[in-house]
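B., you asked whether I could sanity-check this one before it goes into the benchmark set. Here's the sequence:
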Amino acid sequence: MSLTFTVPPDFSGQRLDRFLVSVLDGRSRSLVQKLIADGHVTIEGRDSRPNLAMRDGERVTVDIPDVTPSLVSGEALPLEIIYQDPDVAVLNKPAGLVVHPGAGHPSGTLVNALLHHITDLSGIGGESRPGIVHRLDRGTSGVMVIAKNDAAHQELSRQFQDREVEKEYIALVWGVVQAGRRIDAAIGRDPANRQKMSARAKHARSAVTRITRARHLPGVTLCQVAIHTGRTHQIRVHLSAIGHPIVGDSVYGGVRRRVAGDLRAVLRLERPFLHAERLAFKHPRDQRRMEFSVPLPADLMGVLEDLPEWNDDE
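And here's what the prediction gave me:
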């Protein structure tokens, strides 16, 4: 597919890659830069580079390569698909499942499961990430939406980028946190540990988290959490930053060596107590509102049921 754009006056002097991100809906800057590097972008018929300054009236042509089938193989892994149509699939991701193949996880991922269970999943999103428009951490369970074609992928990506998607999580945290708490702290890669994120990083991106509901139990709080952005480890980083790490989160300070006897149920946790409970978005084809919720899985529910005062009337 070949697309041609004319540079408007307000983009004169701006970088080529920034201009293309603005006109190619749903495509990230890194993907745009790859298109340029691979020779798929020309200006007035000449080769280009990402930082080339645009001029008013120039014609920019982009050749979008055809979708290539994923080279990742399907695997018959258990997967609960709660809804699907020709454009999207919505699933309940189990904890412990990595979303897409990568270093240390060449197989056994959500993508491998998707390729087995969904026969009409295209190769959009890249060979290792077909259909993936957002992700959940390996240790996080809950609801996810998958795009099944290029148009759906672009529109859903736009909705996530424009913060139109509603995302709510359930988290059990240490200490007392009040409903209505808003955490507005930029997040970036931790300079001391590249495997972690930090709210004190030099190079950070804005992130906002809200505590919408809170149930106080002895020593812990069960929170309903809404996020307006989708940064890596956002909820885990933000709650740790305010001194209330997620119970069971060994990376961000949520595992304690000494636990009071009535809280010993939390020692059974093999992952952070974090669950993506609700997801709402507009259908990419007709814009009707779609909303999906999935209950707490057995491992998390079992911990709550063994905590003091859980079965008492609120």
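One thing to flag: The two ends are 59 Å apart (CA to CA). Otherwise nothing jumped out at me.
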